[in-house]
TrEMBL record, chains A, B:
It comes from Pigmentiphaga humi. Residues 9-113 form the Thiamine pyrophosphate enzyme N-terminal TPP-binding domain. One of its GO terms (molecular function) is acetolactate synthase activity. InterPro entries: THDP-binding, Thiamin_PyroP_enz_TPP-bd_dom, TPP_enz, TPP_enzyme_TPP-bd. Gene3D superfamilies: 3.40.50.970. Keywords: Thiamine pyrophosphate, Transferase. This is Acetolactate synthase large subunit IlvX. Residues 388-520 form the Thiamine pyrophosphate enzyme TPP-binding domain. Belongs to the TPP enzyme family. GO terms for biological process: small molecule metabolic process. The keyword Nucleotidyltransferase does not apply. It holds the Pfam family TPP_enzyme_N. Its EC number is 2.2.1.6.
Length: 526, 526
């Protein structure tokens, strides 16, 4: 670790601590109280500073970055309201188990008591979406507090750490000394008892689901999990939402628990025991009158192979050893032949089938297709191998920012953002950052011009068909959103298409050229 | 009060309680957990439901509505992340002393413990920006809890009340009974001692500032305050930010405490005593190295005529009586002759001078001009009488939503939204609601293509001139924001201008026609 020269400020100490602990990307939306930190960043060209024009872009990008880079970015947010604007996507990051270090500016320590107009309780705002929150008390505490924040963020499986930086702590001089090193605890080791209990369960002949999430959904551990499933007759399944999954042709076929409650209950019907691999017992996304909150049959036995903070790769390896699975037991890999291209008017299905067909190898798919993409896994069977990064916490407005982070983390790979129109509006400012940073992202807007999911939900809750007031709250067709103009206004080239043939042409062009491009897929009704 | 038929749900009881207490505008961004409330709203055509495509639009519109209507609207927000997205503008509403009733959906009471993906601690999120928070425990408590929320919101000077509505409380049947009536406490009566102390101070010949805010800034009480100032030799001043001020030709001339710390200290230098009329002791917006947090001379005496929850109109009337001000003492009214129209390239000054010159009578000006509008009061001296609604809490992204609420509250009046470009990006989705509701709003984007305020702040904190990383975080010119395309994409007609002459033409047209229009005023550098 490099020593901090004695004349540096708290802001410099923070930059040095971040850089020396491997954090060199800062997604930022600063304000006055962060100006000394901005000045310190300005002295550190090694730090890549990326501006978002809204804080939800910043936090969502940090989520996408860490999902792909396997290390956190830092966010820079302006006081309580700036943090508040970023909370929805921190909620998603929290549910994705993504490591994020937030730096939130605060008034100078002596200024807080005057309750100036921008004053609010930042710690209280941070707490619901953070695993770790601390306000730095003095310039000389910056480096060690920042190291603690990094350690908290990076402890398995990944956490949200929010470090509040008062302006005077930022501009104040430090006494110097060494930059603190983050003491990141290793993930928990699997428990032998848990491994043996899981092995026994997998040998007892009962109808079993192996439910995986987190690092168990990378290609290699999925192969182990699939071999365990193949050998034991169990069914391998992923959680409903997961931070990242490696899937596609030549990789393990793994479905996810359906979003729809009835579909999930049907899917899990008859399950006698479930083996949790870093996952949680599946529950309904929402409650509905007369429907249960839990999705498993009431008598289903829960067997936890590994808690979320465990080394899941090691746990699966150990379980495979314990079961003495022969080398001849192969994982169930996706060898589905590529589907024929559809034709005619674009629908959600034909858009997604076409996209799967035309995906370049090792693309990164950021998915917020919401109601249009419920069957995405089935429709993209046999697509080239890719990383799949879905929205995880249900706080819409993640897709576009997520694609920024993924593209920054993986400059050599094409990022495809599959974005529902209604949800995309929450953080459309992300397109500007795509353009500014020349990021290699193809955004496909699934444009059905309504909160289609809510029309469905209105029916599901038994509330009937939408009348005038309900339509005024659920339809987006008056006026229609002009995504091509919106993208152009934010510096991103774009085209609208409404047939598969036109989509194929534009998508082919967009996949070949570098830099951002947006395609509005105008979907036929129904 | 109408009885609730016994078969109605909690959601119906909520609608009935809102309507029967005079709340008939709902700014909404609902989700699944609010579908029964949406269904109930659908049965109540008397409630005007207005969709925002992002929650900051919803809460900012509710702020603008109540500032002009003098009664609250209700917001409808989806769970914790939906509330979080609305917090920044609730922060502004809180600082504006605006009454707002938020209805935030929550999972069914029995579902919360399962920690489904969208679960978060809604009460904790609400608390920092709310004066009153309650989760409704049962369907039969809906009406009385809603009445309590309305009473809390409407108690002087205006508060944020957040009512959390679990899905099962919403869909559950009530036993019926009467709709609760909100028990709104009257504002506090002025204290005779305080009035006499203020009168004595105003007679002692010391250099005095009368600092007013809230309802004291309407035309009539301002005349009283101005007469008091004229009679006593005091200077009448408004707080730096206030929810609403009635100003313009024929109304009292009243300046506000400058935003800039040095300017404010200069402006208040020599003040020996300050009389607070619902206002707070002025403090610096931000702390800066070596500069004080307070703006008044250290020896300045504080005399509180009336606390914020007091009837300020009554307090001023009483003070005028106590001082026995003769009828011949006239208020200092604005009789400034209209300025000549500037010419040539648009600057912040020429844009605002022109706008002031061309304002229709009784327009409503929603101001988030930020750095471009620091001298707006000087530049619009002599403009036709108008209401002035500025950003109050420093959480940028209020201007466009605020204009929605003002236009909904005052359908016969032209609303002018003066919006800085960087700040406008936080909630640009508001333009779509302007179009959908055909609101009579002219938006003027002050386009300087940078966070100009932050370049200034970077210099002010002594951090020097922006280098590469700082410019990457403070400049908005790569790519330039295309506001005309953005507006068109959201259904609003628009034009860009860069000379006064072109601005005059387009503004004249936009002022004459009904419905929304956006003008991007591309400002010359410097």
């Amino acid at each position: 670790m490099a020593p901090i020269p004695s004349s540096t400020t708290g802001a410099d100490a923070l930059c040095d601590t971040l850089l020396n602990n491997g954090i060199d990307v800062c997604f930022a939306n600063p304000g006055t109280s962060e100006m000394h930190f901005v000045a310190a960043l300005d002295r550190k060209p090694q730090m890549r500073c990326i501006l978002g024009l809204f804080e939800g872009v910043v936090t969502g990008a940090a989520d996408g970055y860490a999902r792909m880079a396997d290390r956190p970015a830092v966010t820079l947010l302006h006081l309580g309201p700036g943090l508040a604007n970023g909370l929805a996507n921190l909620h998603n990051a929290r549910r994705a188990q993504t490591p994020v270090v937030n730096v939130v500016g605060e008034h100078a320590t002596y200024h807080v008591k005057f309750d100036a107009p921008l004053t609010s309780d930042i710690e209280a705002l941070a707490a619901p979406m953070s695993h770790w929150v601390r306000t730095i008390a003095a310039s000389d505490a910056v480096s060690s507090d920042a190291a603690d924040a990094i350690a908290a963020a990076c402890s398995a499986p990944g956490h949200i750490a929010t470090l509040i930086l008062p302006a005077d702590v930022s501009w104040g001089d430090t006494k110097g000394g060494r930059v603190a090193k983050a003491k990141i605890p290793p993930p928990a080791s699997p428990s032998g008892d848990a491994v043996r209990a899981a092995a026994a369960a997998l040998r007892n002949g009962k109808k079993t689901v192996i439910l995986a999430t987190g690092s168990a959904l990378r290609a290699r551990p999925l192969e182990t999990a699939s071999r365990i499933a193949q050998a034991s007759g169990a069914r391998l399944l992923a959680q409903q939402a997961n931070g990242r999954m490696e899937r596609g042709a030549g990789r393990v076929i793994v479905d996810r628990v359906p979003f729809n409650v009835d579909a999930a209950i049907d899917d899990l019907a008859g399950t006698e025991q479930i083996v949790l691999v870093g996952s949680r017992v599946p529950v309904a996304f929402f409650a509905y009158p007369g429907k249960p909150s839990t999705l498993l049959p009431p008598a289903c036995r829960i067997v936890e192979l590994a808690s979320p903070d465990t080394d899941l790769v090691q746990a699966l390896d150990w379980l495979a050893d314990e079961l003495a699975i022969p080398a001849s037991t192969r994982p169930l890999l996706d060898a589905t032949p590529p589907p024929d291209l559809p034709t005619g008017a674009l629908t959600a299905r034909s858009t997604i089938v076409t996209l799967g067909r035309m995906l370049p190898d090792h693309a990164i798919v950021c998915d917020e297709s919401v109601s249009s993409g419920r069957d995405l896994f089935a429709w993209t069977r046999g697509a080239p191998p890719h990383d799949f990064l879905p929205i995880t916490g249900g706080a819409i407005g993640l897709g576009l920012p997520l694609s920024i982070g993924a593209a920054v983390a993986c400059p050599g790979r094409k990022v495809v953002c599959l974005q529902a129109d209604g949800s995309g509006m929450y953080t459309l400012q992300a397109l500007w950052t795509q353009a500014r940073e020349r990021l290699d992202i193809v955004t496909v807007i699934l444009s059905n011009r309504s909160y289609a999911i809510l029309h469905g939900e209105l029916r599901k809750v038994g509330a009937g068909t939408a009348g005038r007031n309900a339509r005024r709250m659920l339809d987006l067709d008056d006026p229609a959103l002009g995504w091509v103009k919106l993208a152009n206004g934010l510096g991103v080239e774009a085209a609208a298409v409404d047939t598969v043939e036109a989509f194929v042409d534009v998508l082919g062009m967009a996949m070949k050229r570098p830099g951002p491009f947006l395609i509005e897929a105008v979907l036929a009704p129904g």
